[in-house]
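Input/output pair, single chain:
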Amino acid sequence: QVQLVESGGGLVQAGGSLTLSCAASGRTFSSYAMGWFRQAPGKEREFVTAISRSNSVTSYADSVKGRFTISRDNAKKTVYLQMNSLKPEDTAVYYCAADPFAYGEYVFETKSRYTYWGQGTQVTVSS
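Output:
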C-alpha cells in the first residue's frame, strides 16, 4: 500500500510559478512510475505529466509542455511539479498518482494505469 500526500498548491497570478510536491510512503517508491493529473470544475480528470522510475523519461500534455517540469527524488520518495508561466486555464485540483506496474522506463498517460492517488491540492490562477 502506498500513500501519497500532495502539497504546495495555492493562489497565484497569471504568469507566476508554483511548485507542487508529492510525498510517498512505502519502501518501493523507486519502482513506481509517477504522474500528475488535474481536474477542473465540471471537467474530466486529465493527464498533465509523468516520469519514469529512474527519472530518465518524462511525458507532458501539450497544454503544459515547455511550462511545467516533473522531477523526482527517489531517496526522499518525493515527486515534484514545477509550474511556470501559469495561466487561468491551469486552475484545477492537482493529483499525483503512482503506477505500481511500471516496467522499464515506460510512462503512460491513461488514468487507469495509476493505482494509488493522493487527495489533491488546489491550484488557482487569477487573471
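The first strand starts at residue 4 and ends at 7. The mean pLDDT is 96.
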